[in-house]
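Example 3.
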Amino acid sequence: MYRLLTIFTLVVMGSSCFASPPGGPPKLPRANAEAEQKLKEAYACYVQGWYERAIALANEVYKKYGDVQAKWFPSWVQRVMKKRIPNPYEKGEVLKETLEGPFLFTMAIKSVFPSYLLARSYAAMGDKEKALLWKERIIELGFSPDFTLGPSPSPPRKGIRPRIWQPLPLPFREEDYFILVPLDEACKILGLSCTITTNPKMAGGKGIRIVKPDAPNIVYRLFLGRPMVERLENGKGQTETLAYAPYEEDRVVWVPFYWLAKQAGIRWWEVRNDKIYVAPK
Amino acid sequence: MLEKVKDMFVMNFGAGTEYPYTPPIIPNDAITSPDGFPGAGMPLLWLLNTREGAPRWVRHPDKGFWMPGKIVNFLHGYAHLRDVYAAVVVPSEDNQPELAWTLGPIWDGGLVPVIEINVTEAKNWGRLWGIDELASLTMVIGHELGHTVLWDVDHNPADDSQSFGGGGGHHVIGQDGKVGLHTIHCLMWPYFPPRICPSGYVLCSPRIEYCPNRFLHWEWSDELQDWVPRDVGNWIVVRPTEFCQANPGCQSLWKLNP
């Protein structure tokens, strides 16, 4: 309640008072509902390694509306918060809720525009020329040139698409275009070692540890309702972001498949006929 | 460590929590480690607990307006009761692909000194230049903290083409892609990290035409999916830890004087 009185002024302040980069981050036009959905799907496709689809969707939005910006809170945020979440387009509201409450809304927010997705998707496909063309466009919009296009959250996809695929006997659900799977079942199938224990000392109330068989000295810790992974090696921890946070429902822990697949060394996977198919490593 | 001449207070909302355990996204060391800001040209940073302190409007001593702040009673009311203000640092995924941005000066009652840091982007970009994660965060945070106090300073008003001062907040670079009056050793240099290519240019980039040899100094990386500096060891990569003394230097323009 009394976190910081400065917050009061956030609601009334304009967004014209940014610094670094000069004049602040460029303010792009807000995406309409149609563009927002397409960009949302394009983002999920990019993260999950389906770069062609991400490019097609982002291109469609770009051709129709130009560089419009879509912002949203993923569905897991509502599951975790169980209360009204701020309007993602209202900067003051997002910051106010972040500073007043126990939850980092600023970390959970998703914010994308077509050029950004196009540059990164082309880069992940190894198409240097197009990646740089779109990066140039991002800089022309007023963003600082000091940023990298990669590495992408999923492995780069270069070369010929594999011809042999096999279905995984794994249930899944789709949320915000992300494929989520039950962690314990997925670990068994993918050959990862996972433990899930009740632990009130950990954020989310569960201790979730994942170890890869070929790297037994590295432990990955996941946290329910937190879009991050902690990588522990030799007692040292490093965090990295997750594009979709794990959550628990009816005692099942759901996690994004793209991240598990990457840990299991799977480069190609896709969903067809209500099944997840993978190309053998 | 050299004696600091000024103090500044910071709240780190990316520090994580001990109970229940949430890992730090922005380790407190990125703000308070003496390795981060060893010199006297950077204020001594004090961390305030993000959950403590009583809110209060504080009157600016010179300008007279009211500014939002918190009272922190360091010794539980027995001694040293002191009004302080704090810049607020939050990790953010908004406004990508920017590395970081600042929303307002620390001394202005109408705005708020909130700094948003895109941690992943800052780490990735720093790694490109051989800078480890903590040092990358230190430099980016130090730069943004500078904005909160140097907000209205136009360092080089005679050259508006290169000066990002005024409303943008105290950025200055040289006119020809080389080092100007301002120094690249200052935290307020607008590019992270400050660097000089083997041909002597500070603005050497595949997309900027200042350096005639730029394509000798950059190469495409399949791993990072972008242009990366070729042979970083041949570049001069500067790691500023304080504000410069150039005339008029950021050190002397620092508005805090507790």
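Chain B touches chain A through 74 residues (CB under 8 Å). The radius of gyration of chain B is 19 Å.
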